[in-house]
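Long-time lurker. I teach an intro course on protein structure, and each term I like to show students one example going from raw sequence to a predicted 3D structure in token notation. This year I'd like something fresh instead of my usual example. Would anyone be willing to generate the tokens for the chain below so I can use it in lecture? Attribution to the forum is fine with me.
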Amino acid sequence: MSSAVLTSLEEFLKRYTIPSDEVRFFSRSHIFIAFRAYLTDVKPHEIVTMDFETFTLQLNKVAEDLQLNTKKMGKTTYFEFHMNNTTLPATEITNTTTPAGDEEKINIQDINIFLCCKLCCGYLVDATTITECLHSFCKSCILKHFQLHNSCPICGVVVHNTTPVSGLKPDIVLQDIVNKLLPGIPTGELHHFAEFEEAAALNGKHNYHSVLKPYRPCNIYLQWVGPDVGSIQAIDLIHKYIRLPDHATVAHISQFVCNKLEQMEWVLPQEAKCFIQSGGVTLPPFFTLRNIYENSLDFESKNGFLILEYDFKSSLQS
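-- Reply from a regular --
Happy to contribute to a lecture. Here you go:
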């Protein structure tokens, strides 16, 4: 961390140490995230590389020089800050749970703890949750962590003795919240990954596409082709709207339809095989949803949902 950044850290901390009526305590990770946002605001054209461990050492030194009060809860040290009107303007969001006409605005920094990854201290990208303890991280961050460890980096619970990756699940709802509050996150990540892939291709390095690339959630509207077109009698699903990652294949959708009809106790002939269509065109089972968009096969849409139809034909037909 350069001396210029350290000077900025001292200036940043001084903004929050002016006496006022409201006192709050923040952990090192909270301060790290807020400080990065501060640098982005005051130095938008400057790229600053920060290491969290080095930042922690310098934070302790500057906090001691400024005589900031601290308190310890468990193994975590919290630093005292005095909130005042001279602090940085923060992104505001509206609390929609309050009665109409009585909206409450809060700073997004107040909920950063729920939106940030505890490993990289950045906003969540491809939010992924450990099923054992429900702690969430960036997908790439937790995959790197599990290369060396088999436990949660926050609570220490053992996820799996041999294959901890099996205890991970994409948290689409949490990622949707992050994307709604910070719409630049998904666009920026896809742009950065495209640059990374281009540089890797030029250097002849391994392609990490299937592991690290942020997925694009796809909204699908599934419907039966109908009795006039259908080869084998079927019915519409109860829930026609689904959301899938863009690497899901047509074969996955076919299996999903069969499973749902089975749950609805609809009996299909043993030789019936499910085919997925888009605009009357039967899609290859190995096609991913990304392939459908890349090949301009998304012929029909409804309120932002890609319309796909399913039909059943006999596998005995030549």
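Some talking points for your students: The longest strand covers residues 305-314. DSSP finds ten helices and 14 strands in the chain.
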